[in-house]
Amino acid sequence: MASRRAINPSRRVAESGSIPLSSSLHQKSRTSPLLPIGLVVVAAFLLIGYSLRGSGGFAGQKEAISIGQGVSCSADAIRAIPILKKAYGDSMRKVLHVGLDSCAVVSNLLKEKDTEAWGVEPYDLEDADSSCKSLVRKGFVRSADIKFPLPYRPKSFSLVVISDSLDYLSSKYLNKTLPDIARVSSGGLVIFAGSPGQQRAKILEPAKIGRPAKLRSSSSWVRYFIQTGLEENEMAIKKFEQASRKSSYEPSCQIFHLGS
């Protein structure tokens, strides 16, 4: 019995006329000079967009150094400002921010009604933009090494917000820095810390920080709070969680509310 020859599937499709012949498509792509020109134009736009994004051309805030996979705890803090206002009320009258992108955080705090704000940037401000340098000249933001006592009197601020800074401190300095930051607050501390399980921070300017971020678990942070005599502010936690749910605020970082 003669064997049956297998049918070529591509031949069947071509004969049925259900789709255009692939050969005709190839012929059109070869004869059209517009395709390579279009690809070059698209590639040029992509390169321009990438360069602008990297230089901050499309971004309102500097996010070069962040905790985890592109996660900025300072960006979380900025988004949380309306939530903090609802949770802390009058304690948002005089706010100090300590951490990366302090100029961005302070400028957003100053937009809030009845809120005064100052900032401490733990890293170099030489490459800051014009708006940040203006805040520095006016005394709203200063650069200071937080491993040493802050240049403020006790209870100078009603609330201190900390982000993208404590994660870079070793245990030795953390045990000294936390009590000193609490010293300058009369209404408590709000800490935005990197979440464990993420990749280490991509430090693009190691000379400013000198070490990768140490992403601690919530239980590790609680141990530090106990060691330094700080207690979590249960009332503020409850109010913040309620306001977060109403505003659909979902932070990428861990948030701790401490009494001073």
Outline the fold blueprint:
Layout: H1 9-16, H2 22-31, H3 34-55, H4 73-79, H5 81-88, E1 94-99, H6 102-109, E2 116-121, H7 130-137, E3 141-143, E4 159-163, H8 171-183, E5 189-193, H9 206-209, H10 218-227, H11 234-247, E6 254-258
Parallel strand pairs: 1-2, 1-4, 2-3, 4-5
Antiparallel strand pairs: 5-6
Helix pairs in contact: 4-6, 5-11
List keywords for this structure.
260 residues; 6 strands; alpha/beta; disordered N terminus; single chain
Question: Can you characterise this structure?
Answer:
The structure is a single chain. The chain has 260 residues and is an alpha/beta fold. Helices cover 43% and strands 12% of the residues. The chain contains eleven helices and six strands. Strands 3-2-1-4-5-6 form a six-stranded mixed sheet. Helix 4 packs parallel to helix 6 (102-109) and helix 5 packs across helix 11 (234-247). The model is unreliable at 1-31, 47-70 and 199-207 (pLDDT under 50).
